[in-house]
Amino acid sequence: MKTRIPLIIAAFAAALTLTACAPNAPSGNASAGTSAPGAAGTASLADLEHVHAVTGAPDSDNLLLATHQGIYTLSATGDLTGPIGGNRFDAMGFATLGTDLVASGHPGPDTPAELGSPNLGIIQSDDAGASWKPVALTGVEDFHVLTAGEDGVLYGVGSSRPNIVVSADGGRTWADRAALPVADLALSGGVLYATTEQGLQRSADGGATFEAVPDSPALALIEALPGGQLAGIASDGVLWRGGSDAGWEQLGTVAGRPQALGTSGERVIVLDDRGVVEYAGGETKVIL
After folding, report:
1. Which run of H or E residues covers position 232?
2. How far is residue 237's CA from residue 225's CA, in Å, rounded to a whole number?
3. What domain range includes position 252?
4. What start and end residues bound the annotated signal peptide (predicted)?
């Protein structure tokens, strides 16, 4: 889905070490370009340096890992390959938008100049990550949080200021919403959720205003689940599933500091010191 702002939510950062690019290979310089890409192939988690986001691929049961070294594919059998298209770039922010991929971050040594430097702004791929094109804010913005809803609306928070911004045209134009310092965003059941120092908050008006979600855990990382629910990791490392109207269920506890949280259908995916861990159907399985 996305990555998080390292200078916001100090309490969460201390508890979960929510750094943007700190290496933390569990027990892997950037480019979404199409010219002179680095070689792609079989990889290990150590090759990735840092994983910023994990989400389900739009067209398969595979997982996509947005990393410091590009976008990688993790198959259901645990095979890790990439970077896709040989494109090495620091994918700080990442989301799926329908069947397209949207990313932000920093270029790598072989990134085409047209994609921007020192920041990529918004870049988009319509061929599953094989190639990328610049969309907006090229060279200007570095989105640390990106998330999209089923309606195709894209929400983000850049590194330059705390405003939540929204785009209804695939990231081409953006409008300001609430100036709310957040660690993470997720859109579920038409409601935009945000993790903040004051706790989990929600917006029913597209991010213009927010209110506290009563009786919710102190979540730092969140992802959408079907049925308007959320998966979230709290500042004490507990993994939760629930929502504002459904109560909360504890799924487990992460090992060490989590790098990323993602979902794919009903599956909850955590990347922590154990590796890539799947929570599904009441079972926990280390995929890689």
Report:
1. strand 229-234
2. 19
3. 10-286
4. 1-22
pLDDT tens column, 29-86: 333 333 334 556 888 888 898 999 999 999 899 999 999 999 999 998 899 999 999 9
Omega before 23 cis (within 30°)? no
Number of domains in the chain: 1
The bridge status of strand 199-203 relative to strand 191-196 is antiparallel
Is 133 in contact with 124 (CB distance < 8 Å)?
Answer: yes
Q: Model-level pTM? A: 0.87
Which pLDDT value is given to residue 47? 87
| Contact in structure between 82 and 70 (CB atoms under 8 Å) | yes
Q: How far apart are CA 191 and CA 92, in angstroms?
A: 24
Q: Is residue 2 part of a domain?
A: no
CATH at residue 64: 2.120.10.80
Residue 113: phi, psi to the nearest 5?
A: -60, -30
Interstrand relation of 267-272 and 275-280 (parallel, antiparallel or unpaired): antiparallel
What are the residues facing 50 on neighbouring strands?
none
The percent of residues above 70 in pLDDT, for the chain, comes to 86
- Coil, strand, or helix at residue 114? helix
State pLDDT tens for residues 195-245: 999 999 999 999 999 999 999 999 999 999 999 999 999 999 999 999 867
